[in-house]
Give the backbone structure.
Amino acid sequence: MKIIFAALLLLSSGVSANNYQEEVDKFFELYSDEKISDAVDSIYASNKYVSSIPDQVKQIKTQLSSLDDLVGEINFINKVSDYKVGELFVHVTYLVTYDRQPIRFEFQFFKVKEGWRIYSMSFDDNIDEDIKELARKAALKN
């Protein structure tokens, strides 16, 4: 089964998060409590331009809300990586396991004067090939 990929990229300004990890933690806390709409609103709170694309935000909320029916309940939420591009950009990847299968969540933040601002959030289930490639690279190192 393939889950529809959802992403929201933004050019931004406005309120920012002082600590991107706190924003991701808050997202998953709300998401785990089945407060999907609040979780999405929370992760995009640092970006005032989200209000200009309400249809995309609504689509993400709808897709996340339907995950429960497609893949079951959440079992574990695990941070996989925190990849920094210099001191100004970060890409954070999580793997969330459900009853049926895992889903990858990715968050991107960039640094502004006041802290960090969300740039993108996405989720998908296309992790098979990525994991195989990483496993093969790790095997070659050994």
Residues 27 and 43 are 6 Å apart (CA to CA). The first helix runs from residue 20 to 32. The chain has four helices and five strands.
